[in-house]
């Protein structure tokens, strides 16, 4: 049943992508902002309380609906799962930026590519070379795909089902929004959200990296994972980018002063102790790297779907 939930949700999203300004996301943004305004007094315990209230506000209603659908029958559980996966996935939220950047680079229109990247990552991209634009687009796509797709897959496969998927996406949003921009008050308030998401994402991020390695260049991916993931302050970002870059044979990583451009979260900066932050093997990122990223992501998605199908069959036979 989980396989069909994910399959139909992906199919619906391809036909009718969920808008980023939909009412559910708008409500989450409004509630997160209100909780921060009400609870943020510059202390970590206030962040813990606000985080718990935000998670409960979204997971408790889903838990009640899940309990009701279990009583009503498998069809209602399937419909609820499809709705939750559709709302929590973000496979198409960023693909238009990525595709447009790829087309612009292929046509030699670097100015348009820089403008699109700047709009996507909300950073100044003036003066960036084409290789840097391509590299940052690839890095952003790998991390976003994990957080918007594969992380959701993992948690909906757990016994928590749709509750886990909702918890994961809300926790990811809070870890991101409550740690940017960097102010003294927000640093303390958002500290718990970042730590909580690190724990929630610990297993999923490693499964995603393993999938990248399996469907890409396995040997280089594992080598990069073991030797270069620690060069990022954010362990999860390091694992994803080093493994993804190794799987595609592309040099990923950024100088310390530009590292925050990949994902606008404080913890994603590269370890300042390491001056040389690029992997020493692989090609420089180019428009071809974007095409390689598309292939890697789709192969990883097919691998995940195969695993979900096998687990669903095993559960049904059991």
TrEMBL record:
Molecular function (Gene Ontology), one example: ABC-type vitamin B12 transporter activity
Topology relative to the membrane: Multi-pass membrane protein
Subcellular location: Cell membrane
Function in brief: Converts cobyric acid to cobinamide by the addition of aminopropanol on the F carboxylic group.
Protein name: Cobalamin biosynthesis protein CobD
Source organism superkingdom: Bacteria
Transmembrane segments: 49-68, 75-94, 149-168, 296-317
Primary gene name: cobD
GO-annotated cellular components: plasma membrane
Pathway: Cofactor biosynthesis; adenosylcobalamin biosynthesis
GO biological process, one term: cobalamin biosynthetic process
Family statement drawn from the similarity comment of this UniProt entry: Belongs to the CobD/CbiB family.
């Amino acid at each position: 049943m989980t396989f069909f939930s994910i399959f139909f949700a992906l199919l619906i999203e391809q036909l009718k992508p969920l808008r980023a300004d939909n009412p559910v996301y708008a409500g989450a943004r409004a509630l997160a902002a209100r909780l921060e305004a009400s609870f943020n007094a510059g202390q970590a315990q206030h962040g813990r309380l606000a985080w718990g209230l935000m998670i409960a506000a979204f997971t408790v209603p889903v838990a009640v609906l899940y309990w009701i659908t279990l009583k009503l029958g498998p069809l209602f559980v399937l419909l609820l799962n499809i709705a939750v996966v559709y709302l929590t996935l973000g496979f198409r939220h960023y693909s238009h930026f990525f595709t447009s950047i790829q087309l612009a680079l292929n046509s030699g229109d670097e100015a348009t590519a820089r403008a699109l990247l700047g709009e996507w990552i909300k950073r100044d991209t003036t003066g960036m070379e084409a290789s840097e634009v391509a590299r940052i687009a690839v890095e952003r796509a790998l991390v976003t795909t994990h957080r918007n797709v594969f992380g959701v897959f993992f948690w909906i496969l757990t016994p928590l089902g749709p509750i886990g998927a909702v918890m994961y996406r809300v926790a990811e949003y809070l870890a991101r929004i409550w740690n940017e921009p960097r102010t003294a008050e927000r640093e303390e308030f958002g500290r718990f959200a970042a730590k909580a998401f690190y724990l929630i994402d610990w297993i999923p991020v490693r499964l995603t990296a393993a999938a990248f390695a399996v469907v890409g260049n396995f040997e280089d991916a594992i080598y990069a994972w073991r030797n270069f993931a620690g060069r990022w302050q954010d362990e999860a970002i390091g694992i994803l980018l080093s493994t993804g870059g190794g799987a595609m044979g592309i040099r990923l990583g950024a100088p310390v002063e530009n590292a925050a451009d990949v994902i606008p979260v404080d913890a994603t900066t590269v370890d300042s102790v390491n001056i040389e932050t690029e992997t020493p093997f692989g090609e420089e990122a180019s428009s071809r790297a974007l095409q390689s990223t598309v292939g890697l992501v789709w192969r990883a998605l097919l691998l995940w779907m195969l695993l979900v199908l096998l687990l669903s069959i095993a559960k049904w036979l059991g």
